Amino acid sequence: MAYWLMICRHRPGMADLRAQVRDDHRMHVASGGGGLARVLTGSALTQDDGETAIGNFGVLEAESREKAQAFAEADPYARAGLVETIEIVALASRFQADRIDPLTRPTDVNTGIA
């Protein structure tokens, strides 16, 4: 497994659309995009006011750059047309992922609940 920084820049003026798909986005993160990646941490990117969203980022654990990219492209934000650009950057092999409490949780195969 490798670690990746995912940076998604959003199109301006899309706050209403972002709010509409936020719950689906959070479910995507919690499931790791159906197993494409594990999201270690992430959040919104904002303007200097700390409130106006301009994108989102995530630290991902994924088998390959292609799987990290597929995770980003499958995000409901991207599918809804909110995302303008996606950048996937490799993190150092010595990245200390064990210091992070992951956002993606293992799912119970019987119930589907994380």
UniProtKB/TrEMBL annotation:
Homology family: Belongs to the YciI family.
Residue intervals of the YCII-related domain: 3-89
Origin organism lineage: Bacteria, Pseudomonadati, Pseudomonadota, Alphaproteobacteria, Hyphomicrobiales
Species per Swiss-Prot/TrEMBL record: Salinarimonas soli
Matches recorded under InterPro entries: Dimeric_a/b-barrel, Sec-metab_biosynth-assoc, YCII
A Pfam family of this chain: YCII
Gene3D superfamilies for this protein: Dimeric alpha+beta barrel (3.30.70.1060)
Protein's name according to its UniProt entry: YCII-related domain-containing protein
